[in-house]
Design goal:
Layout (H helix, E strand, L loop, with lengths): L3 H11 L11 E6 L2 E7 L12 H19 L3 E7 L10 E11 L34 E4 L2 H19 L2 H9 L1 E2 L12 E2 L7 H13 L1 H6 L2 H6 L2 H4 L4 E8 L4 H17 L3 E4 L1 H5 L1 H10 L6 E10 L13 H4 L2
Parallel strand pairs: 6-7
Antiparallel strand pairs: 1-2, 2-4, 3-4, 5-8, 8-10, 9-10
Helix pairs in contact: 1-2, 2-9, 4-5
GO molecular function, one term: oxidoreductase activity
Organism: Octadecabacter ascidiaceicola
Keywords: Oxidoreductase
């Protein structure tokens, strides 16, 4: 039903899905017409994601991308989720098994190549949603709501960045020079981070070596602040799911939201601190009416990008297919 050529093409397209820090933890195994998705927990974030929730969300996004890629070849799959723990440093952990069958094309697959994250400013033009809504997302478009989220995001970001281990792990996943051995393969490069050459050179020193000194004089607040850029986003989405829903399924839905936004000409940037910090997570839920039966998974700002998509860093097939 599926040839090795089609399988490899689908794996490459599935790898276009967003993953935390661009760690790309998904690994694939093919046994005839059964595909198995594994999470390489050895690339997990021991400080930033100690429970593996972000890794599971990332694998869920890759899983949905694979389903969409398969649909381009009129294939579908019966999916069995394993429910396994994806916390760091467990090696390869099975996430899902896909038994292939005939299917129909899902037009959203065409957005896999078009979607990208955008950390920079957005265009001033009003966003046109053409009736776009989602049951799993609250769209915040009013000025007071966006301003409040921008302020809370800056506060939460600074709180998280005060953790030395988190900062070091973040820097470890930065690829700020083309001479970095993993440049173009994984992690976050200068283009995706919207950094100038001088900012890229100084970032490791500011975030690690001189952080304590800069923090004493209040400079770190300015280093981590994004409110000015956040306020250029005409739409901030509060992605939330039912408490009974698992993180892999959440990742699948999250990717579809991002692809639907791409269809409207929008790019996004996660404001992960708002959902990761327990205090701001609770505050966001209370202010925007997200009930106790649901959980806030991610906050992401959307808008029309003011530049071209940055180069994608992706692992070669030899690292993804086992």
């Amino acid at each position: 039903m599926i040839t090795q050529e089609v399988f490899e093409r689908c794996v490459m397209r599935a790898a276009l899905a967003p993953t935390v820090h661009n760690t790309q933890p998904a690994r694939w195994v093919r046994d005839e017409n059964v595909l198995s998705l594994f999470c390489d927990t050895n690339v997990g974030l021991t400080i930033g994601d100690p429970t593996g929730q972000d890794a599971a969300l990332s694998c869920g996004a890759v899983l949905e991308a694979m389903i969409l890629a398969l649909s381009a070849d009129d294939l579908s799959a019966d999916i069995t989720l394993t429910g396994n723990d994806t916390a760091p440093n467990q090696g390869l952990v099975a996430v899902a098994h896909l038994e292939l069958k005939s299917g129909t094309q899902d037009g959203l697959h065409e957005q896999l190549e078009n979607r990208f994250t955008w950390r920079g400013r957005f265009a001033r033009e009003p966003v046109k949603l053409f009736g776009w809504t989602r049951a799993d997302a609250r769209f915040v478009m009013d000025d007071p709501g966006r301003a409040w989220l921008a302020e809370r995001n800056d506060w939460a970001s600074l709180q998280i960045m005060q953790q030395g281990g988190f900062r070091k792990e973040l820097v470890d996943w930065m690829r700020l020079s083309d001479t970095h051995p993993r440049a173009g393969l994984d992690g976050m490069d200068r283009a995706s981070m919207q950094m100038s050459e001088s900012e890229a050179r100084l970032a490791p020193f500011a975030l690690v070596k001189f952080w304590s000194f800069l923090n004493m004089f209040g400079v770190t607040r300015r280093l981590t602040a994004e409110a000015e850029v956040t306020l250029t986003a005409p739409l901030i989405a509060l992605f939330n799911i039912d408490n009974s829903e698992n993180q892999v399924d959440a990742g699948r839905a999250y990717l579809r939201m991002c692809l639907e936004a791409s269809l409207l000409g929008l790019a996004g940037w996660p404001m992960a601190s708002l959902s990761d910090n327990p205090s701001t997570n609770a505050q966001v839920c209370e202010r925007f009416g997200i009930g106790a039966d649901r959980r806030l998974v991610q906050v992401i700002r959307f808008g029309e990008p003011t530049g071209d998509a940055p180069r994608r860093a992706r692992r070669p097939l030899s690292e993804v297919i086992r």
